[in-house]
Amino acid sequence: MRFVIPSVILCQVPLLVALLGAVSVTARGADAIYEVGAAKVDITPGYPIRLNGYGGRRDESEGIRQRIWAKAMAIGSGQQQPVVLMTLDSLGVRESMVDEVARRLFEKTGVDRAHLVVAFSHSHTTPKLTNVCDTIFSSPILPQHQAHIDQYTAEVTDALEQVALEALADRQPSTLSWAVGKVNFAKNRRTAGGPVDHDLPMLVAKSADDGHVRAVYVTYACHCVALSDNRISGDWAGYAQEAIERTHPGAIALTSIGCGSDSNPASGVTGDNSAAAAHQGAQISDEVDRLLAGALKPVSGPIVATLTHIDIPLNPVPSKEELEKLAATGGPAGYNASFQLAKLDRGEELQAKLDYPIQTFAFGDSLAMVYLAGEVCVDYSLRLKEELDRVRIWLHGYSNDFCAYIPSERLLKEGGYGGGAEVVYFALPNTIAAGVEEKIVDQVHAQLPPQFAEKPSETGER
């Protein structure tokens, strides 16, 4: 199913300009005026809960190092559907949760699913959510632990609805601009010296009245795994948000993750070394300050929101006999095989494909934001920035659905963790089949307006 919904942002413009579908222009120059709102809601649980991301960590959490948040940035006027960019301090969510939030939002505001995105920070020190990596612990979850997970999942669903509504209610005339900086703490975790994406795209909303910073949204392609103990925190992404908000009082900072499934912080996984995570967050914040002090590119034009689902096939599902043999071997693979057998015993079919969401927001011809689901490797970012105009493209992984690692063809051939071995922790019966890279890249090209494939000449003209 494919949705293409143009959202022309109109506010405080003459009737003729409104009829032409243009955005408002300030007296200072060519800065377009959007209606922008931002909000945040604390999602730190008030009770112990299992944290997600590390299979050997099977006790409930042992305190709070840092508050964690759901945040939202709403862009658009009441005359057209706004888009709502949401970020969440979480290892990941399933699309069923996003769909439920969208259903509630549509009933109350008319904003539909194609205009709402949830990007998660993939922090490995955040609570587990229901149906997210249900085989990660390689053993059954205790009923009392599952009760806390289910309770928290319902609370986070409510929080996402709340923060979206608050951001929509907060909208006021603002300018949008963006820039791309560099931060270098991400390192390829599969191959020494392997590919990484050090870009730090930043979107800033400033008040149209006095120019003060209202919201900052940044993306960096790196795992949130500096911390690995059993205390709740947002890891480096959480520290980045805190540092940005300290520097810009009253502003709301949102962080998301790029195509960084095969990148870790240079610090490695440190256990409880919060100083390492805080330092990485400070690097993000310092680069934001450097960008804000320089020349920013204005964002302008009508917003086109597109959401498409494509089928990504898995390799053939093992037979029951094959699963029984694998289950007898024990370990993570054996536990996952037992999980699949239990589904068969309940009369359920085993999963044969991913129903994979791809979402884009195009702001005229000034900026295109691409959201890919799952743990997407860096090859996708590097390839799409080569094939499209890299100075106008913004790539996200870890969005809308935490369904699987999404390898490139290169990683599928190499194998290992991130190339297929990890599926046992995602409750999948088999690995992703070859051909996934072309399917995803082709769909991104299909969604974006053709002007984003036009690259600037040496003079900077397209």
From TrEMBL:
Keyword match Signal: yes
Segment forming the signal sequence: 1-29
InterPro entries: NEUT/ALK_ceramidase_N
The Neutral/alkaline non-lysosomal ceramidase N-terminal domain, residue ranges: 34-248
Keyword terms: Signal
Pfam families given in the database record: Ceramidase_alk (PF04734)
Domain of life: Bacteria
Name of protein: Neutral/alkaline non-lysosomal ceramidase
The organism of origin for this protein: Lacipirellula limnantheis
